[in-house]
Design a protein that fits this description.
Elements lengths: L8 H25 L4 H10 L17 H14 L1 H5 L2 H13 L2 H12 L22 E4 L5 E7 L10 E7 L5 E7 L5 E4 L14 E9 L4 E2 L11 H30 L16 H33 L3 H33 L12 H9 L5 H14 L10
Antiparallel strand pairs: 1-2, 2-6, 3-4, 4-7, 5-6
Length: about 400
């Protein structure tokens, strides 16, 4: 595979905007037919967009968090499923950056610049909680490993060239094993049947004695031994997806009301778009979306600032700013996507129009991790100065 190499933030944003415009046209049909976006994901790779966080020293554009968040917001405004697919890709590019050896960075960054994709095999079902990881890396006499376990919600794995697998080694510490998609003993099962984000192919990954060379394993547990932005960056992208879904739903609602809705007879107006009560409601929804967009930008700038001088305090500020953006965007996405029907009227509920995909995507994506715990951490930080814990979900 060959891919274009994006030069800077401005080019990255221009490419993302162009792709979002293209992807928007087929989003509804892909969702309705559950047609997996293989061609669209290939276009993401070929465009160079998936390599924009590769460090400049390795030939990448090394864009900041502000640009990365805007890329995801643009993509999600067009297709909430498609935007979710590369989220883990960027998370695990970041793991290479922070925990890889120089040789590992050289190898994997070259792979990413060539257009190759990371998926994920992280979450497990039936365990005590989300961080109860039971997949095991068992050492072999030659220094390599054997990987065994079952993963669920493996978004991106079906489209991936490399599947980063979260596993515990003999010391019970967390590591990430980067496994080729075609590795012996690795099976990706397309059994995702969620009501929303239907085309993310977030299915199951089975690992049956998968061989892993020692130089494909990174010590992820070290990420959380000191100040870190791993969780903040990962959550920032989730916040961007929610914000994008909300903006996309609002835009489609407005277009529907302008072109397809009839005015309510009591309004005395010639068109639905002139109805003062609808105008009021659109103003309220627009305020919600603008607030989410503003919180997203603020969070991204706070992450970028922390990257220039990472301390416990700057990492805490970044995590709290991202938590605020994520909590607000989650509520906004569900509210605006649901209000689409309120403002558009009965016809909007027709299954053939598939306008409910926005709400289904929002409701499904916002279940990723509970916003109520983000509010808790914000409250503790503001009231008592308690820094948020170091983990990948904050």
């Amino acid at each position: 595979m060959t891919a274009h190499v994006i030069a800077d933030d401005a080019e990255a944003l221009a490419v993302a905007a162009a792709l979002a415009k293209e992807f928007r046209a087929g989003a509804s049909a892909r969702d309705a037919e559950r047609r997996l976006p293989h061609a669209e994901v290939d276009k993401l790779s070929a465009s160079g967009l998936l390599a924009v966080t590769v460090p400049a020293a390795h030939g990448g554009a090394d864009v900041g968090a502000l640009t990365l968040a805007e890329i995801f917001r643009l993509l999600a405004s067009a297709d909430g499923s498609l935007a979710q697919i590369p989220q883990s890709h960027f998370v695990y590019v970041n793991v290479v950056r922070r925990q890889g050896t120089e040789e590992q960075r050289k190898f994997f960054f070259a792979e990413v610049l060539a257009g190759r994709r990371f998926g994920n095999a992280q979450s497990e079902a039936g365990t005590r909680h989300v961080q109860d990881i039971r997949t095991r890396l068992t050492p072999r006499p030659d220094g390599s490993y054997v990987l065994t376990g079952v993963k669920h919600y493996a978004t991106g794995a079906l489209f991936a060239d490399w599947i980063p697998v979260l596993a515990r080694a003999e010391d019970d510490e967390l590591h990430v094993a980067y496994v080729p998609r075609d590795a012996p003993g690795l099976t990706v099962i397309d059994d995702w049947d969620g009501m929303g984000q239907r085309t993310t192919a977030s299915g199951t990954v089975r690992l049956d004695a998968v061989p892993v060379p020692a130089d494909r394993v990174l010590p992820h547990h070290l990420t959380f031994r000191g100040p870190q932005l791993h969780g903040a960056v990962a959550q920032l992208l989730h916040a961007a997806i929610d914000t994008g879904i909300a903006g996309g739903a609002l835009a489609e609602a407005a277009a529907f009301v302008r072109t397809k809705s009839r005015p309510w007879f009591e309004s005395g107006t010639q068109t639905a778009a002139e109805d003062p009560l609808l105008i009021q409601r659109f103003g309220e929804l627009a305020l919600r979306v603008r607030a989410s967009e503003a919180l997203l930008r603020e969070a991204a700038r706070t992450v970028d600032a922390a990257l220039t001088g990472l301390t416990d305090d700057s990492a805490a500020e970044a995590s709290i700013a991202v938590a605020a953006a994520k909590a607000h965007a989650a509520d906004t996405a569900v509210e605006v996507a649901g209000a689409l029907f309120e403002v558009a009227g009965t016809r909007a509920a027709l299954d053939s129009l598939n306008l409910h995909r926005h709400w289904r995507d929002a409701r499904t994506h916002t279940l990723h991790d509970p916003a109520r715990w983000k509010i808790q951490h914000i409250g503790r930080y503001v009231l008592n100065g308690t820094r948020p814990p170091r983990h990948g979900l904050l």
